[in-house]
Amino acid sequence: MIFRQLFEPVSSTYTYLLACPQSRAAVLIDPVMPAWQRDLRIVNELGLKLVMTIDTHIHADHITSAAILKREAGSRIAIAALDALDCTDVGLREGVPVQVGGIRLDPLHTPGHTDNHFSILAGDRVFTGDALLIDGCGRTDFQGGDPRALYASVRGKLFNLPSETLVYPGHDYQGRWVSSIAQEKQRNPRLGGERSMEDFVQLMQNLDLPYPKFIDYALPGNRQCGRCPDDLPEDLQQYCRQMQPSVQG
């Protein structure tokens, strides 16, 4: 499998490029608006054809580039079938694999950060979106979030994957790139070790996090599979403006 991990610095989002070396078919997981030209350039430089984008959930901290990549490359848009977005081409359902050339992707319904969040299992690695981060997890106080559901998703589903499974998160804010199921089970300060569900619920309910600064623009934009609003304030323009080159691409 051809694999690239790409970083968008405004929202600290990881985008993942996976491609089949035989068919040259490629998929981008969680592509971000400011980085769409970079991502398409890398696809083309590797001699690949982008056939699909996958969003793990409707994001609140950035706008997906799924729609613009569909326009430019003809890729299909995949997101949770439960979200019932008009722009969806492929509805993600647990138990229904997605095939990209010779690569099998297994959607895992992992609600809790949002009600319709999906992680994507690809062989020996899992792309966990905002459900499971390195030494952390996504917040649970908006978009149908539920700490009990997230606890069940991570401890009951993700932590039951083989210990050696590599964990690739949707974000990291400290320059870390990858973890493993074994590592997160052992040392994740929110969900690892002997943390009980009640302890986790209390922890998440007392985080006292600020209101997400981009959510009021990101949610309607992402319900259209990636549209920057016309009334975006100047201080938020960076979320849609083309990014500068990053150290990972």
Automatic annotation (TrEMBL):
InterPro entries: Metallo-B-lactamas, Mito_Persulfide_Diox, POD-like_MBL-fold, RibonucZ/Hydroxyglut_hydro. Residues 12-171 form the Metallo-beta-lactamase domain. SMART domains: Lactamase_B (SM00849). It holds the Pfam family Lactamase_B. The keyword Transcription does not apply. Keywords: Metal-binding. This is MBL fold metallo-hydrolase.
